[in-house]
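Note to self: keep these together.
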Amino acid sequence: MTLKTMHSARIMAGIPTLNAALYRKIRFLVGDPAAFVELVDAESKSTSILILRDIEMDRAKRNARVTQVACPADFAPTMGLSGDRETATAQAAAECLRRHGIAAVTADRSLPMIYVHQLLQAGIAVACDTEWGVTERRQKDEQELQQIEYAQSITEVVMKQACETIANAERGKAGALYSDGQPLTSERVRSMIDGWLLQHAFSNPESIVAGGPMGADCHEHGHGQLYADQPIIVDIFPRDKKTLYNGDCTRTVVNGQVSDRIHKMHQAVMAAKQAATASVRPGRTGQSVHEATSQAMQSLGYAMKLPGPEDDNEYTAMTHGTGHGLGLEVHEPPLLATGGPPLLIGDVLTIEPGLYCRAIGGVRIEDMVFVTPTGCRNVNKLHEGLDWRS
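Structure:
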C-alpha cells in the first residue's frame, strides 16, 4: 500500500527502557525494540508513528505521546519480516518511510546501526542531526521537573539516614566506628542505602561512601572500615524505576573532631558552591559557572588542577568540573566545566565543588538546581554541615 507522500522525515529507535532519547520523545516505557518516525508534509504538518511489538499497542495508544501506533506487521516489506524483533522493527521503519515517499531521513545520534542498515537497504539515505533530542532533553518540561524533584527528595531522605548513621556511630579502638556492635564499613552503609531505595522503587548504582584518604579520589566508591575524625564523602545518585529520572546528592560527614584543616576545606567548598549557584542563569555558559567556582577556590588559596609529580600528599585542590546536567541519565549535557555551553531555561544541574588531599581525604557538597528565567532554584533541603549527629 502506498500512503500520502511526505516532504521530510526523522527517526529515533531503540529500546525505550535503555534509550533515554527515545523514551523522552514518546514518554512510554517498553523493554522491546521500538521506532519513532516523524513525518512532515508539504504544509509543515507533522505526524508521528510509533512502531513496536503488537502486544504493546493498546498500552501505547493510551499512553505514548504519538499520533499513531503500529506494529511491524503493519509495515511488512515484500520479502517479509525477520524473526529477530530488532531487525523486524528496523525493516518496518524503513518500509514505513518508503511507503510515504521518503528518500532521505534524519536520525538522532542514538540510532542503532541495524536501523541505518535497513534504511540503506531500502534505498533511503540517512543523515545524523547530532543535536536533535539533546536540546529538547535539556529543556525539561513541568512534568519532568516534578519527577526529578521527587527523585531528589527521596535521595535526600536516604542521604540523611546515611550521614546520621555515620555521625552517631560509636568510636572504638584507634577511632574505628561501630554501629549496633558491628564495625561500620563503607559496604554496610551502602547496603543500608541500597535496601531503603529498593523498598521505595528506586534502582541505585553503587553509591560513594569514601572515608579518609580514599576520599581524595573523587570517584573512589570506598571500602572497608570507617573511622572517626576523618571526612567521609557520601554521594548517592539513584533512579526512579517508574519514571527513570534521577536524583544526585553529595554530603560530607565527620564523626568526632573536625580539624582546622578540614574545617577550612569545608568553608571553601561552601563558598565555591555559593558562588557557582549565584552565577547560574539562562545565557551564562557552563564554563562561566565553573570559572566562578575557580575564582572562589583560588581566592582561598586552593588550586584547580590534578596533582603533578612535583606535588606531595599534602597538595589540596579541586580536580574536576563544577557539575553537570541531569535527567534520565545521571550525567547529561550541559557540563559546568571548560567549554561548557550556554545554559537554557529548564536545564537541571548539579553544583558540586570539592577539595581533595591524599593525606586526609576529600570534602564535597552537591546540590541540584533548576535553571529558571531569572536565575536558578535550588531544590535541596539538607544542611551542608559536617556534623550530622541527631
